[in-house]
């Protein structure tokens, strides 16, 4: 048996360093005789530098690698994220009807013995006009009033509300790099110029100008959109899904706060625009704002006009960064002795922040499926590829749901998004079932889903989808109890406000020791 002894991660962005940290921690890379983890990053090729919003799974990942939460906040300009507010997704500005809805990270409240609230909300049990997140969670009100998800003394990565982070993508890579080296990752600076393949098509070595040839038993490609190993060298095909999700360009700007103590939004704001949507993310020192759009429905000049109009005069002196990307993935993320993780393996557009979450998944799968015997590589690759492809397809369905339920007909972008030909059959089937009953956990195979049933419910009903429960009303006899619960949630959330600090104050206090 040929034992796996060395892993070389290529690329030092968020993906490369997360993989390296996780592998090093799990494989105890610093101990004598353990599997060696090296990382090589190019001194000349920069990071993409966007990717500022995360998903709650990041807390488990950062906790697993042993990084202090305060170190993350202080080092990466990070703040807390408790969900996403969607503006103008259902109807364009100026129309009659609600203009936004909230997708919180916390689940709908359900105390032991009390009824599940969703059916009663669908049957009109909540106060008139209250959206699901508002009626069924405390998080909605806390976030609207600018409160953070935890108290200063709460343990790292824990708090009463479910949360993730907003952070500076370049600075987070630096924080992880420092931490990774403490865990035993050996860092090298060099640019991979050429990939040498052996007679079986596996990678035999990487040629760099600075360090000559680099060799390992397993290569993890984290070279981002360049995809030097798994794409260029291993020729693993890319499966485009722009037939489902149209946006493929972004223009981003870093926006200063008007004053140093300006409040920081504790959620991402996703505002629908004529050919896509804008993200607005509050970090400690600045906001990150970007317009993601479809090149079939707009162009770079018009996109810059849209983002500048969205930001107003503050954008006059700001320099835009233009980015091209494609939604899709490599069905073979892992081929031979090479695994692609991060943008190199695939990307679903930034809505719902699945980029880094898919890096976490790839990292987790790789670490736990890693064969000790090199001859077992093919089996591990097959398992890895099946799991990650299934996740991509579920994520695609979830993101497409945001678009295809729109009532907007003001531009071709929104009209095209409702074309049934662009909606995957798996999503169409689910939507058809949910006309008569709400989403249930049995609709989802937990290990393959990134989003909990509650997330599907918040977005589905936030987009004003109609589930007709009237014929089933008699199956829900606990309306009075449910109404008492709705009232109790409002009272408890009013009390929680005095317990949880304002967002900026929380972040600043947690950074103080670092
Ligand atoms: P990169 O950050 O590009 O890093 C690539 C690394 O490879 C660099 O270190 C570079 O030096 C190195 N490299 C490249 N070529 C070579 C070579 N030849 N030799 C040696 N080293 C090399 N994700 C989220 O989770 N949330 C978001 O809100 C989000 N928003 C996004 C918005 C847009 C418009 C886009 C396009 C992506 C977004 N993402 C988001 C995805 C996110 O940016 C990435 O998943 C994340 O930053 C990881 O990137 P990466 O490490 O794969 O690539």
From TrEMBL:
It comes from the Bacteria. Pfam families: Trp_halogenase. This is Tryptophan 7-halogenase.
